Amino acid sequence: MRRLTIIITSLLALAAVAAVARAGEAPAAAGEQGDGITVQGSGSVTSVPDRAQLSFGVETQAATAKAALAANGAEMRKVIAAIKAAGATDVQTQSVSLYPRYAESTGNGSGAVQGYVAQNSVSATIRELEKAGAVIDAAVGAGANKVSGPALSRGDQDELYRQALRAAVADARLRAQALATAANVSLGRVTQIVEGGAAPPPGVLDATKSSEASSTPIEPGEQQLVASVTVTFAAS
Asked: What is the spatial distance between Cα 3 and Cα 16, in angstroms, rounded to a whole number?
């Protein structure tokens, strides 16, 4: 009986020690799954646009729908030929429309049809920005009576965005290191990166050069492409 009592007492003592050990366990060390430092970083690249996209249109009026459309087609073919000769590429039809033109109504009903209006517009890319003004002048000289744009961009925008992404990751590391130093922990490896996307260029920041003096002036200025990322670093 005494031997049994000693065994039971020993088992109870071991259980008590185990319970104390569990109650005094330290929290998981920093750097284990679920721990770390998460920051946002941003990077930007400034560049001068080297290409432009413009829209050119022709509007014609005639007594009949057929005459309006035929006249519009003839004028638009001249415009397309002229802008291509001046250096425009990627010429693409945007819209073609034909609708009646009504006289002003004197009563509750609509006025009589006085004729028809035909419209046609194309978009075009000018890959050498210095030619943009000359392309506009050529379009108007050939009969275009509607011009809109330009939308300025870079031909190597994908590479510029990758540069901005690299700068964003570097910025995130600097921010994380500052937090780690303040918290007296060591910054570890990257455990997760989430791309935040690119912000569209905000427009002209600084005028630097224009197209040829003899043509419609186009100022390229500078554009800033911004990328953002969210990065998680392990910490210990």
From this structure: 20
The interaxial angle of helices 132-142 and 65-85, nearest 10 deg, is 150
Q: Angle at the Cα of 160 (from 156 to 161), degrees rounded to 5?
A: 115
Are 36 and 30 contacting, i.e. CB atoms less than 8 angstroms apart? yes
Predicted confidence (pLDDT) per residue in 116-157, tens digit = 999 999 999 999 999 999 999 999 999 999 999 999 999 898
Q: What is the dihedral of CA 28, 34, 39, 42, to 10 degrees?
A: 150
Helix (H) or strand (E) holding 152: strand 146-153
pLDDT at 198 over 90: no
Decide: residue 27, CB within 10 A, 0-12 exposed, 13-18 middle, 19+ buried: exposed
- Domains, the chain, ordered by start: 28-48+157-235 (3.30.110.170), 51-153 (3.30.70.2970)
6-31 tens-digit pLDDT: 333 343 333 443 333 333 333 333 33
Count of other CB atoms within 10 angstroms of residue 123: 19
